[in-house]
Amino acid sequence: MRISYSALETFTTCPAKYKFQYLERIPAPKSKEAVFGSLIHEMLKMFHEPSRPTPLSEEELLKCFTDKWDPGVYNDQQEEAFAFHQGIEMLKNYYQENSPLKFNIVNLETSFEAPILDGEELHQITGRIDRIDKSEDGAFEVIDYKTAKKMPGQKEIDGSLQLSVYHLGLTNRWPSFQDKPVKLSLYFLKHGEKLSTIRANQELNETKEKILSIVQKIKTSGFEPRPNALCPWCPYQRWCPLFKYKFIEKKTVNEEQVKNIIREYFEIKSRQESETKRMTELKEAINLYCDEQAIDRVFGETGYITRLAQKRFGYDAIKLKEILEPLGKWNEILMVDKAKFKKVIEQLPYDLRKQIDQFKKLEREFKVITASKNKI
Ligand code: SF4
């Protein structure tokens, strides 16, 4: 399989979005955040362009940004002015901290391929690196610019799959980098902060396994939607079973009736919740009273309540097996504890997980109803 890192990331966030974007290739307009990010990236590439005879001045950089600015993607003037101001601030701060003369830039916006072998099958993970620098001590640094507001913690950076893939891509494209130290950095332009990390060989092997496991999931996926925090900005809402309803112009159902059903659903749910809460309080009060009086049954006008001691026992599985197996009864009681199985399977190497996956069979498919009070 040949697949970009962004496609892998999209699948992990939402398989349905992956299907719309990469399999069905439904054209979708770029979000204003994506347009903004692309323009900033373009400016930084231009700023660092090694072929430029003299470095760009701050005024020239800001003028280019202003000339290329497209106000049309924003909803209103206020939003547009805010975004424009943010872009100017980002570039000004960047300019102050990053004189092009300070860096030895090896490449800008360069694409890569990271080959990963799964038995006989070769997968190519593709992507694009914003910038690669070489420092005086011979070390390389991969830099990816981020325009997002949110800045993750160091732990997330240390575990970032994207940066691990960049490392694999870099060493594949320039095998001579294999033995050299590689620093992997995310530059958060809004905060003016660069967070860096490195990868050990063991971590790179784990990255390959993680990717193979995503590729395996893609191969067998039903591409179900997975609601997530980015849904409000998803350009495929019109096609997504979770949002499509909002876009159907001529609904075949009686909308009033649907609204009433939803209203009643929430009313009952809310009643159930407050009754469950009250029930817990009553049980606590009964327990307290029984403890104080050293009794286990209390009487009221409408009936009585009894509390009985309950004990749960576990068995030593090895001893149990020794007794039951010779009787041919062991298999009869053996049932896979799905929660524990899931935990164990996550710790297994990819090869074993893949083997086990072959024996996975669909037992039952059903829809679970959940309710959310948030309006989308
Ligand atoms: S709206 Fe959300 S759930 Fe639907 S396709 Fe987009 S990301 Fe997935």
From TrEMBL:
Q: Which Pfam families match?
A: PDDEXK_1
Q: Which residues form the PD-(D/E)XK endonuclease-like domain?
A: 2-241
Q: Which residues form a coiled coil?
A: none
Gene3D superfamilies per record = 3.90.320.10
Q: TM segments?
A: none
**What is this protein called in UniProt?**
PD-(D/E)XK endonuclease-like domain-containing protein
